[in-house]
Specification:
Blueprint (H helix, E strand, L loop, with lengths): L1 H7 L3 H8 L7 H14 L5 H12 L9 E6 L8 H17 L2 E6 L7 H10 L4 E4 L6 E2 L10 E4 L4 E3 L3 E5 L1 H14 L5 E6 H6 L3 H12 L8 E3 L7 H8 L3 E4 L2 H11 L8 E4 L11 E4 L2 H17 L11 E4 L2 E3 L5 H9 L1
Parallel strand pairs: 1-2, 1-3, 3-5, 4-6, 5-7, 7-13, 8-9, 8-10, 10-11, 11-12
Antiparallel strand pairs: 12-14
Helix pairs in contact: 1-3, 5-12, 7-9
Length: 341
């Protein structure tokens, strides 16, 4: 690297930053440094890179880089445990990396979008973390995205196609299917709100249909309902005859049980896609680890900023975070039945 610096007429620090594609170095200098590095046959030493990363991580007080804007259309008072956990994970990781994470609550109609653009630029915002939104929608016209590095932490941002970190809804649903199957259930039925299905990229329905059709289950058509009234639930239950129901969350599972006049726990098993309850939970299900999603979102945004990448990427990266199984009483009744049989 010293040889490259001497030939390029710059410092070794400039060479290091240029080879790491730092936004602090001009594009012309990066091209000159890389051309000289190629001519000299330079190859980075991975052991040295690991050492430098270790030394950087040991700093107790990382230098302040800039402000990161966390944008959502959800009013602050409407935040659910998942959104709160995600933000806390992102905020904690941002502080470790030397950023200040600042929330911005915007109108669904994007009123004041021009003022938001000016505010972000005036505050020196380099990166934007898109949080879960009130409803799935396109954000093409919200901002002039070419000014910012952007990462979404939700499928409720339909467009543009930004880099994204999200729970592995397909993998997490398969985890529920595996746990239910291991407890003796064979007819697994998914009941999910249409908006929830869209936000989760249709992955839970795809996972349940794959499991029932290709694995050890029996075919049960998922019910994707359009309203909170659970329209079509009773006919679906009578026609499909599930012995276990996978619902969105605990409140959703209880609403389903009330409408079907089922006891919880009872002969029909219940598991939920998202529970924030500790084990044993009142209703078994998956903890989709919102704090880890938020932290990973900040890591991806940080690397995007360091690469100097702004705007909508040509090829977007999607990072999936696997959740963990939380046992609960809602499937124990079936296990007792199997034991007594």
């Amino acid at each position: 690297m010293r040889m490259i610096a001497q030939r390029a007429g710059v410092t070794s620090t400039t060479v290091s930053l240029a080879l790491r594609d730092s936004p602090e170095i001009s594009a012309a200098t990066k091209r000159r440094v890389r051309r000289i590095a190629d001519d000299l046959g330079y190859q980075p030493d991975t052991n040295v890179s690991k050492l430098m990363q270790y030394l950087r991580n040991r700093r107790k007080d990382p230098p302040f880089h800039s402000t990161i804007a966390a944008i959502t259309t959800k009013p602050k008072e409407d935040a659910n445990p998942y959104s709160i956990g995600l933000y806390q994970g992102a905020e904690r990781r941002a502080k470790e990396l030397g950023y200040r994470l600042t929330p911005f609550y915007i109108d669904e109609e994007f009123k004041g979008a021009e003022r938001l653009q000016r505010t972000l630029i005036n505050r020196g915002v380099e990166g934007i973390l898109l949080l879960p939104m009130k409803r799935p929608q396109s954000f093409d016209t919200l901002l002039d995205w070419k000014n910012f590095a952007v990462v979404a932490t939700t499928h409720s941002v339909l467009q543009p196609s930004f880099h994204r970190v999200a729970p592995s809804h397909f993998g997490n649903t398969l985890m529920l299917c595996e746990q239910l199957s291991g407890s003796g259930y064979r007819r697994l039925g998914l009941v999910i709100p249409e908006s929830f299905d869209l936000v989760q990229g249709h992955e839970p329905a795809a996972a349940v249909m794959w499991w029932n059709g290709m694995h050890r289950g029996e075919p049960v058509k998922p019910l994707v309902h359009k309203s909170a009234k659970l329209e079509g639930l009773q006919p679906w239950f009578e026609q499909q005859r599930p012995d276990a129901i996978i619902a969105g969350g605990i409140a959703h599972a209880r609403a389903i049980a009330r409408q079907l006049k089922l006891s919880l726990p009872g002969p029909i098993g219940f598991a939920v896609l998202n529970t924030d309850q500790p084990a044993p939970s009142p209703i078994a299900g998956g903890n989709i680890c919102p704090e880890q999603v938020g932290s990973a979102g900040m890591d991806l945004l940080h690397s995007t900023i360091l690469r100097g990448e702004k705007g909508v990427p040509e090829l977007s990266v999607e990072l999936k975070i696997r959740g963990v199984w939380v046992p609960g009483d809602s499937i124990s009744h079936h296990l007792e039945d199997l034991g007594s049989g």
